[in-house]
Write a structure and sequence with these properties.
about 45% helix, about 20% strand, about 240 residues, 3 domains, single chain, alpha+beta, Nuclear Transport Factor 2, Chain: A
Length: about 240
């Protein structure tokens, strides 16, 4: 019975050490499985607009857009749209320039009024913009470093959009639903700083201890099932 006594001690003491974290793993898994990932990402609040119609005759050629951007070479060039304006989005050696595909004028996303239009165009619900700020040091919920525009909407979910001041792209959508998911994610991976690291020693140790608790419990279960089976057989022989 040495194996059983050892398994009982291991199960009891390790469960005391790791039990709260196991509970948090289960609770976090439940919360994250209940919340639809589309709602967490804020995709349900992206406005659905028809495609911007572009006629080639009304657009400047790529060569003109490249000259307007001041680039000699290009890494990539995409004909797309910002709000209802067709644009060339050009990249060269790590720099991004956005050129109006109609007028050939560079667009500056340091212009608050343009960023406000981008946010209103992207956001589907009827909600006013509560504040708009260009942040050099954005909060951890954004992720990458600044600068970035933060647009706060006065909706029930506390939605915030983060717009890149270089490309005009909406880089992140955050809400109270996202923050709830992120809170339990950090508890789940035991990275209480930014939730980015799930290969750190603390998590590996906790997971190993959790596995030891489960294996010890399995050993206890096998021994007790064998004992119960022996008692049942003895009772039948009487």
């Amino acid at each position: 019975m040495m194996i059983l006594r050892t398994a009982v001690r291991v199960h009891k003491w390790l469960a005391l050490i790791i039990g709260v974290q196991v509970l948090l793993w289960i609770l976090g898994g439940l919360v994250m499985s209940v919340l639809p990932i589309e709602r967490v990402r804020g995709e349900h609040k992206i406005a659905d607009h028809p495609p911007v119609l572009m006629t080639p005759e009304a657009l400047i050629p790529l060569s003109d857009a490249t000259r307007s951007a001041g680039f000699q070479t290009l890494d990539s060039a995409v004909l797309t749209s910002i709000t209802d304006e067709p644009v060339w989005r050009l990249e060269s050696r790590g720099r991004t320039r956005v050129i109006s595909a109609r007028s050939g004028e560079p667009l500056s996303f340091l212009d608050e009024s343009l960023v406000r239009r981008i946010a209103d165009y992207d956001f589907a619900p009827e909600a006013e913009i509560d504040s708009i700020r260009l942040l050099a040091d954005p909060p951890s919920e954004y992720g990458p470093g600044g600068p970035v525009w933060q647009i706060v909407f006065a909706d029930a979910e506390g939605t915030r959009l983060y717009v890149d001041p270089e490309s005009g792209l909406v880089r992140a959508r955050r809400s109270d639903t996202w923050r709830l998911f992120d809170f339990f994610w950090r508890l789940h991976v035991m990275d209480y700083d930014d939730g980015e690291d799930f290969n750190h020693p603390l998590l590996v140790i906790a997971a190993s201890l959790g596995l030891a608790v489960a294996l010890a419990g399995l050993v206890i279960l096998i021994f007790r099932m064998r004992r119960s089976l022996a008692v049942w057989r003895a009772a039948r022989k009487r």
